Amino acid sequence: MTEELEQYSNPLYLDLMSCCTRDDSEYEISQQALKGIVVDIGCGEGPFLPFMKGFTEYLGIEPIDFQRREAEKLAKQLGLNNCRFLPGTAQNLPIADNSADTIMTTYALSELTTIEDFKKALQEILRIAKDQTKLIICDHIGGINDDYWHILRLAEAARKGRMIAIETPDLWIEIFCFLNQHAEIRKTKRLKIVFEFKDLEDSLLKLRGMVPDIKSNPQVRENVKKFLTIPRIETQVFFVEAIINKAG
Fold first, then answer.
1. Per-residue b or e along 94-103, where b marks 16 or more CB atoms closer than 10 Å to that residue's CB
2. b/e per residue, 134-157, with b = 16+ CB within 10 A?
3. Burial tier of 105 (Cβ tally within 10 Å: 0-12, 13-18, 19+)
4. Residue 5: how many other CB atoms lie within 10 Å
5. How far apart are CA 55 and CA 138, in angstroms?
6. Which of 248, 235, 224, 242 is nearest to 110 (CA)?
7. Residue 116: what are its φ and ψ, rounded to 5°?
8. Phi first, then psi: what are they for 42, rounded to 5°?
9. Does pLDDT of 127 surpass 80?
10. Among the listed residues 231, 160, 235, 243, the one whose alpha carbon sits nearest the alpha carbon of residue 200
11. Displacement of CA 222 from its chain's centroid (Å)
12. Strand-pair category, 232-244 with 183-196
């Protein structure tokens, strides 16, 4: 795997995502009329495919090979023959200019590592959008006291000893600056997101071998112990629906 895609392959992060119920997010997606060609940036293993309807063609963009394969399997199980899954990142979308009728990105933008990469991703969204393309963004609100971000920081400590994702306040400042300039905001909502940690115990235990100084670092040790005993965490995300206005 190239260095460019290494940030997407943290196994602890992927295990964390796999035990997220996303109840309210699923409901919001299920209520959307997804017209025409839908581009799903960071589609993962296709968790929202069962809740999507009304599109002509679905293009799932995902840099991790095994997640694309799982998404393809799920689409076949659901009888969705109008789906394709392509390798790519938010900063480099394999999509033609002015070709997307609907663009959605869920829990993907906050994984970018620099504001420069994030701005490039927003410009890619603008590039592939038609005038009046619907844009759906759902991502973490986050904050220093949010348990979700504590567990992500543990995952990053296990990988490289640092947190590489953009801090979410910066992310939302950039998103709303972009929307104010290029789109009309139709809806914003705060949604609940739930993590069931009973399914994550084995992954958390990996930290004991992955963090080099876990025995000598009381804070890391106590954080691991805490998450091994918490059955679930509830945090929040923003859901934004906007219409891109390229003509202006």
1. ebeeeebbbb
2. bbbbbbbbbeeebbbbebbbbbbb
3. buried
4. 13
5. 19
6. 235
7. -60, -45
8. 75, 55
9. yes
10. 231
11. 28
12. antiparallel
Question: What is the C-alpha to C-alpha distance for residues 18 and 104, in angstroms, rounded to an integer?
Answer: 19
Q: Report the percent of the chain where pLDDT is more than 70.
A: 66
What predicted TM-score, i.e. pTM, was given to this entire model?
0.82
Find tokens 């609100």 and name the residue.
141
Residue 111 in tokens: 């994984």
Q: Per CATH, which fold does 3-144+163-196+236-243 belong to?
A: Rossmann fold (3.40.50)
Predicted pLDDT of residue 101:
97
Which residue in 200, 144, 220 sits closest to 16, CA to CA? 200
12-56 pLDDT, tens digit per residue, is 556 666 666 666 888 898 898 888 999 999 998 898 899 888 899
For the chain, the domains span 3-144+163-196+236-243
Q: In the sheet that 100-106 helps form, which strands lie side by side, from edge to edge?
A: 83-86, 57-61, 37-41, 100-106, 129-140, 232-244, 183-196
SS3 at position 212: coil
Which residue has 């992955």 as its token pair? 210
Calculate mean pLDDT across residues 198-220: 55
- CB-based burial label for 68 (10 Å; 0-12, 13-18, 19+): buried
